[in-house]
Amino acid sequence: MKLLGRLTSINVRKVMWTATLLGLELEREDWGAGFRSPQEPGYLALNPNGLIPVLLDGDFVLWESNSICRYLAAKVGDTPLLPTEPQARARVEQWMDWQAGELNNSWRVAFMALVRGQPATPEAIAAGVKGWNHHMGLLDAQLARTGAHVCGEAMTLADVVLGLSAQRWKNAPIERPLLPAVDAWLQRLAAQPGFADYVDNGMP
């Protein structure tokens, strides 16, 4: 299997961390800012959105990083990262969808302005930081309820995708509230294979 995308992308790193946790080997090819453009016709034929990453598994092509993570777990089969029991799996996918939608949309303006240098008004940045902190507070409350991982005792794909998001929040140049459950959870995740390479590696 081959993954197309630069390692500086948080969405590429979540797939690479998932593969490491599953014991899968992924060949990775650099695409995106600073490398080959995903606007090239050949890439757009794979992903018409022109975004990274894209997974190639033989003739099978898949985009959207959370979908790729689910696919890799499903290929392995019996793994705690993606339970097969319907309600347990739905809970994991609920939090993955929340990460991709609600949480990502909350930090987008503030992060892109403060870290990536895109233009935004001070008011928009302040509103973005407030929303980002609010959503991280929701995650902290969930982790306080479980006392372990996002969906309970076992680590799942929800922890993978949200772990990368939480590390981005922790390293962002913003004022943050104290979220002890998030801090304790990140320390637990730090013991997992691949955390140092794909999460706590200094990349925003």
UniProtKB/TrEMBL annotation:
Keyword Isomerase found: no
InterPro entries per UniProt: Glutathione-S-Trfase_C-like, Glutathione-S-Trfase_C_sf, Glutathione_S-Trfase, Glutathione_S-Trfase_N, Thioredoxin-like_sf
Domain GST C-terminal as annotated: residue spans: 85-204
Alphabetized UniProt keyword annotations: Transferase
GO molecular function, one term: transferase activity
GST N-terminal domain mapped to chain residues: 1-80
Database matches in Pfam families: GST_N_2
Transmembrane segments: none
CDD domains recorded: GST_N_2
Family classification: Belongs to the GST superfamily.
Full protein name: Glutathione S-transferase
Species of the source: Roseateles puraquae
